[in-house]
Amino acid sequence: MSLPDRTVLDNGAVLVSQSLPSNPFISFRGSIPAGMAAEDGDYGVAEFVSRLLLSGTRRASAAKISDRLEGIGATLEFRNSEEALVFQGRCTRETVAETVRIFVACLSQPAFPPKEVERVRGELRNDFRLERDDTRHRAMRELARIVFPKDHPYGRDPKGDEARVRSIRRRDIVDFHAAHIGPEGLILAITGDVDRELVEEDVAGPLSRLRGNGEPPKPVSPPGVHRPRSVWIPMPHKSQADIVVGMQAVSRRADDYYPLHLANLLFGRIGMFGRLGRNLRDEQGLAYYAMSSLEARTTGGFWSISAGVNPANLEKAIRGIRSEMDRLRTETFSLEEIRDGKDNQVGSLIVSLERNAEVAAELHRMEYYGLGMDFLERYADIVRDLSEDRVRDVARKYFDPATCSMVVAGPVGRTRVAL
Amino acid sequence: MPTHVESLDNGLKVILRSIPDAKALSTWVTYRIGSRNEVPGMTGSTHWVEHMLFKGGGKLAKGDVDRLASRLGGKYNAFTDTDFTTYFETLPASAMDTALLIESERMRNAAFDPKEVEAERTVVISEREGAENQPEFLVEEELWGLAFHVHPYHWMPIGYKQDLARFQRDPLYQHYLRFYAPNNAFLVLVGGFDPAVAMHHIRESFAPLKPEAPPEPMRLEEPEQRGERRSDLRRPGAADLLSVGWHIPPFVHEDTPALILLSTILGGWRGFTPLAAGEWHSRSNRLYRALVETKLATEAVVRQEMKIDPALLIASVTLADGVSLDRVESVVDAEVERLRKTPPAKAEMARAKRQVRSWYRYEHDGVTNQGLLLSIMEAISSWDAAESVLAKIEKVRADDVREAARKYLAEDHRSVVRFHAQEVPR
After folding, report:
1. Do A237 and B236 touch (CB under 8 A)?
2. Which parts of chain B sit beneath pLDDT 70?
3. Does any CB of chain B come closer than 8 Å to the CB of residue A129?
4. Which has the closest alpha carbon to B288: A78, A103, A62, A48?
5. Are the C-beta atoms of residues A395 and A263 closer than 8 Å to each other?
6. Is A174 exposed, middle or buried (0-12, 13-18, 19+ CB in 10 A)?
7. Beta-carbon neighbour count of residue A13 at 10 Å?
8. A283 in B contact zone (CB under 8 Å)
9. pLDDT one-digit tens code per residue, B393-406
């Protein structure tokens, strides 16, 4: 694969493109720094905005936009996240100009019709209701809240809370949009059936007409100190309990990121969920899933374990999680485990980029975290150069039960076990 | 797209789609065995067998499947459906032999170690319990149980918990030996390879495997439903749910193209395969306009189940707070009635056709998706069926959609499940 093209438009938006002509359509993915981190106390407003961008512009109603997009067979989605407003879509070479025009109109001229604001308010209230009844969601939401305290964007509910959802007014939405949605910090990665001419004419052209307020995006603040604790959320009407364990990890640009990424792979991902899955699922048969995840972001990261178990097995499962974390100190990753993990990461570069959508997401990540357009070329060497001891050290340093919080949601009965 | 199809002497059908510049290779082996081939008391056995086929046997020790695929950075998994069970690995294109080794050993040599069978019991039950946590699963299970009294679509591929609790190893192993044979399977390979070289390696790996006697054809036929069936579930939950299922013919039926457009107009289209669309949902469809835009519901989707045997077209609605099930059901009825009375407008037909065409392109994103699409199509009809259905869809007229609505979306042929969310105990 040749290096992607990177263009900075006059208005500051960055366009990254890569031609993959054998895939007969186009995928794009991008972001604008208008997520939760930009909220400044107006919690929940970024979520409203993200859900309303397809709900009508000054010239077209919500129905007209969806009729137009679906009439040309294109998709366009907006989603709020901790740091950014994220967008993605699919179209064909023939429909890319129209799709980008609609996308730019949705970003620059949203009407935020009062009727749609109320529809989204109802949708959000319903989401709160549904999530209250979801064991996995409740456990993970509570864990994030504990690990990233003081309403940090990595820890709070993207929807705010029910009181905020009731109180947000259309004016708040309009103001947030005006303050944060523009070309400043916008990244658009596009791939598939594209070439330079098409990108310049049909993508860069309309995108360069976006105007903002010229202010640089606000940086994401670093998270506060996590004080570990345990929370049990009884949901007696459920069949299964969800256990989640987690702590703050490192940012994407931190020196420890690559060894930690590999350590996480070995601990709870590779094969049927790494060492953790081997213990809980394969050997003890306690859980259909038991895995770990590492989400590295701009100013910090989140490492977590999750497992779904029968309530009768809660204690055994928690003991199993603890024993695997302890084992990182008594039986460190073997040379063979680390070699397999490195091979997996190098091999997955091919396998994980087989789809247009995956390539677009990776191109976006490369630009978002400033990894460089040659990142994919360097990646294999970065992985191969990791020392085994470094991987073992970061596993011991970060995957420490004493620094983790734990949340259990489900039919927990009277069970209360410490990690 | 050029596709080479050939059968080995032992009956294994091979479908090869070479994409010369692809760096990855996706290998799919699909068995013509699903929960439709199970009998009462053994529900979930096909899915349990699927779990056991990751546990080694023959040349593969326990853990080797994971190790071999993981070392290469591969994606791999398996799915048990009502109509088929499929296993896949997507690996770097240079690793074809690894995929063929895993799949050829899996076909006849799985170990079924009694200790491993027992260890998997709680895992499978845990999978079911995880699903039970979601009211949508309970509604889905109830709907198929209500709509099918004779045919095994009555139960879900995961099976009933009481069956899972008492299965023994030997019947499971017999189930495996009976149905996992080259003449009851087909292999799909998509990606960067030379077809002649691939065929050579496939013959080496699979030609020595012995066929079994062909499985008995499905003899169970669901009698025509006469009269609406209804079920009201009252369980703790967050939102009321409505699910309506109408009997439709099998995928190979001539009315399928019209039904696809009917589904698209009523509830949007998300591709032939279940994974293509991700979280994207159509908004340009009648139920979304009538239920979500009007704030009666937060979600309304239509799913046309494309199966070997007659199946269901399902409309599922998540109700907004404070809205009654009666009200939402009457809106669904009105929209169905509108389709039965008046042919869709020209623009609506054109939009629906365009949506289906575009999604077909998107479903070709990458070798894994192409392998999935070819495998599902071959399992329920033939590997190139989607293409021919697409061609037929272009010829469907608005009147055909109305006729399909009149014929299939009839009250007498439907089953309705209403989930009344009860207050959650604290």
Report:
1. yes
2. 426
3. yes
4. A62
5. yes
6. middle
7. 22
8. yes
9. 999 999 999 999 99
Residue B204 exposure: Cα atoms within 13 Å on the Cβ side: 12
* pLDDT by 10-residue block (mean), chain A, 419 residues: 91 95 89 96 96 96 96 96 97 96 97 96 94 96 97 97 96 97 96 94 95 87 96 96 98 97 97 94 92 97 97 96 97 96 94 93 98 96 97 97 97 93
Return the CA Rg of chain A: 23
Q: Is A239 on the interface with B (CB under 8 A)?
A: yes
What is the C-alpha separation between B426 and B408, in angstroms, rounded? 44
Residues 6+ positions from A138 with CB-CB distance below 8 Å: A131, A132, A233, A235, A242, A407, A409
Total beta-carbon pairs less than 8 A apart between chain A and chain B: 203
List the beta strands (DSSP E) in B140-236: 185-191, 229-236
- Rounded to 5, what percent of chain B is helix, strand, coil? 45, 20, 35
Summarize pLDDT for A196-238 with one digit per residue, the tens.
Answer: 999 999 999 999 999 988 888 889 999 999 999 999 999 999 9
pLDDT at B426: 64
Q: Report the sign of the C-alpha dihedral through residues B179, B183, B189, B193, in that order.
A: positive
Q: Which amino acid is at A312?
A: A
Six-digit token string for A90? 């699919």
For residue range B158-184, list pLDDT tens digits in order: 999 999 999 899 999 999 999 999 999
Query: Are A301 and A237 contacting, i.e. CB atoms less than 8 angstroms apart?
Result: no
Are A344 and B239 within 8 A, CB to CB? Answer: no
> Looking at residue A408, what is its pLDDT?
98
Query: Does the CB of A41 have a partner CB in chain B at under 8 Å?
Result: no
Query: How far apart are alpha carbons A323 and A332 in whole angstroms?
Result: 13
Q: Spell out which residues of chain A touch residue B321, defining contact as CB-CB under 8 Å.
A: 122, 125-126, 129
Q: Give the sheet arrangement for strand B4-7, strand by strand.
A: B4-7, B13-18, B185-191, B24-31, B85-92, B75-80
A102-137 residue pLDDT tens: 999 999 999 999 999 999 999 999 999 999 999 999
Query: In the structure encoding, which two tokens stand for residue B192, read together?
Result: 């960067």
Which amino acid type is present at position A176? F
Tell whether the torsion through CA atoms of A308, A311, A312 and A314 is positive or negative. Answer: positive
Burial of B162 (0-12, 13-18, 19+ CB in 10 A): exposed
- What number is the ipTM of this complex? 0.92
Report the pLDDT value the prediction gives residue A1, as an integer from 0 to 100. 66
Q: What is the pTM of this model?
A: 0.95
Measured between CA atoms, the residue of chain A closest to residue B350 is A71
